Amino acid sequence: MLKTLGLFATTAVAEILGCYLVWLWLAQGRAIWLLLPAALSLAAFAWLLTLHPSAAGRVYAAYGGVYIGMALVWLWLVDGIQPSTTDWVGAAVSLLGMGIIMFGPRPT
C-alpha cells in the first residue's frame, strides 16, 4: 500500500511540475526553454501511471484523489498559500475515495 501511495505521489509531482512550468511560461512570461523540462516532466507523469499494477481506468480514477492532496501541498510549499481547513477536508474525502477505489475488495 505504501508503494502504491508513493508512486501516486511521485506521479502527481511530475504532473504538477510539468503543468507549473508551462504556466510559468504562459502566465508569467518566463523563458520558452521551460517547455523542455515541462515536456520531460509530463512524459514522466504518463510513464509513471503505467507502473501501477491495476487496470488503467481504476488507476486514473484513484490517482485523482492523490493529485488533489498533492496540489494542496504544492499550493502551500511553492505558492506560499496556506490551504484552508475546508481544502484539507476536501482532500481527505478525495483520499478516502482513492483508498476505496484502489484497496477495496473486488469480486473474483
Annotation keywords:
108 residues; mainly alpha; transmembrane helix; EmrE-like
Give an overview in words.
This protein is mainly alpha-helical and 108 residues long. The protein has one domain (2-103). 77% of the residues lie in helices and 0% in strands. The chain is built from 4 helices and no strands. It has helices at residues 2-28, 35-49, 56-77, 85-103. Helix 1 packs antiparallel against helix 2 and helix 3 runs antiparallel to helix 4 (85-103).
What is this structure's SSE topology?
Elements: H1 2-28, H2 35-49, H3 56-77, H4 85-103
Helix pairs in contact: 1-2, 1-3, 3-4
Family: Belongs to the UPF0060 family.
Subcellular location: Cell membrane
Membrane topology: Multi-pass membrane protein
